[in-house]
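Per-record layout

source: Papaver atlanticum
name: BTB domain-containing protein
length: 214
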Amino acid sequence: MMKLSDMKEQRKKKGITTAQKWVEEVHEKQEGLISFLGGFAVAFKEVTHTDILVEPCNGPAIPAHRALLATRSEVFKNMLAADTCKAAPTDSISLQEFNHEELEDFLEFLYCGNLGKEKFEKHYYSLAKFCELEILKLLDSSNALKVLEVSDVCSNETIKIDALEYIIKHTEELVLPPTFDEFAAKNPHLMANYNRACFILLKEKKLENKYLQV
């Protein structure tokens, strides 16, 4: 009969073997992903079969691939879905928020899935500002609660304020469905922000009505 200590040791070895196997599988998948994205990076750098030009605020336009841009970025997906971008492959889209160097690094990030620390730190502000503006452009009833969550994770007060204002303005549409209950249960601190914003807005409205009656 096997001793308890032997059974524990056997389980331990089995657990280690399973963990090692899992690590190897994850590593293999990561290598495959890096290799896969590497192919896109090469196509980008060598300008292979590009079908659209992306224009910065200065300098020459940068050739890219519609399919990859649309797949990797909701911003590009919406831009490319516009009627003006459905014509010939020689079409271009403009990102005036970026200069040539910033745009090149931004596209490199989309193609490669990462950006060197030095480049990231150098362009952090412009990238963050671009993302902020694009998120606010896309803000609507279908994503307002999610945007509020994202603003909290990113500690972005501009997005948070805009999202809260949008939710308050569309209270009936957003607060009554069951999805709001799930959101509230998951984000009690954001609910506190929401309640506070509602109170401030109500107070301002009362003051406004008071002055109008005078």
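summary: The chain has two domains: 33-138, 139-214. The chain has ten helices and three strands.
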